[in-house]
Amino acid sequence: MPDQVPFSSENMSVSRSLPTADVFEPQKMPGLFALLREDVSCVFGRDPAARTKLEVMTTYPGVHALINHRLAHKLWNKGWRYGARLLSFFSRMFTGIEIHPGAVIGRRFFIDHGHGVVIGETAVIGNDVTIYHGVTLGGTSWSRGKRHPTLEDGVVVGGGAMILGPITVGSGAKVGANSVVIADVPQNRTVVGIPGRVVQSADTAHLNPSGIDLNHHLIPDPVADAVACVLERLAVVETRLGLSDGNCMECDGDGVCDNVSPQARKRGRKHTPLAKAMGS
């Protein structure tokens, strides 16, 4: 992986040239063409379907949207607002991806699939960030100041997720598909659900060879965990009632008990509905 410049709140300078919002710019960014080369090259480390640079440059809407944004952002910073917005408008029509020209995006950013992605004006995205289709980096205020989220280095955001407000998603964090995140996410953590909650600690992350955790599907399911907990407790109750030798009756929930945790399976308990014990 190319040399990285850590991207965080301590490594950003603030541009006051734009009255519409405070725009945070990462320091030590390379030139436009160097950025574009990195944007194309990084695809091969995150999408096994990518074969050649020509294919990536001509058939990947996420790359097209990012190239257009790099150009529009240059215009925006020079004060050519209408030209920047017009370029972003055409990019949205062509790619289905909406990125405000004021949004700050770091190096080696990858939008996989991409359709339906929305990135707001004051959003800040660090280096080596990956997002999937349907992601929204949205605002929660009509204020002209900072109102969109900040994603630090190495963040992965699953499809359909919404990250709302001027919050920070720490470096190396993962946001599960269809989650709604409205509070800060610590570094190297996984957040899922509505509203988003942390379900995975840093020591259980799975890194690919490039150092970016793309396994956003390998996350706990809190609902399944809760059901497994209930089934385990039910097994304890049935054992105490002396009902553990029976077999499950057929019901509409047939097969649900298969979700019981491995610990419960290891104990070899068979679950008998309490209704059967009552003679129903």
From TrEMBL:
GO annotation (BP), single? cysteine biosynthetic process from serine
Which pathway, metabolic or otherwise, does it act in? Amino-acid biosynthesis; L-cysteine biosynthesis; L-cysteine from L-serine: step 1/2
One GO cellular-component annotation of the UniProt record comes to:
cytoplasm
Name the catalysed reactions.
L-serine + acetyl-CoA = O-acetyl-L-serine + CoA
Q: Which GO terms describe its molecular function?
A: serine O-acetyltransferase activity
Give the UniProt subcellular location, in the record's own words. Cytoplasm
- Record key words, sorted: Acyltransferase, Amino-acid biosynthesis, Cysteine biosynthesis, Cytoplasm, Repeat, Transferase
Known EC number:
2.3.1.30
Q: Which Gene3D superfamilies match?
A: Hexapeptide repeat proteins, serine acetyltransferase, domain 1
PROSITE patterns, from UniProt?
Answer: HEXAPEP_TRANSFERASES
Q: Which family does it belong to?
A: Belongs to the transferase hexapeptide repeat family.
Which named protein is this?
Answer: Serine acetyltransferase
Q: What is the species listed in this Swiss-Prot or TrEMBL entry?
A: Magnetovibrio blakemorei
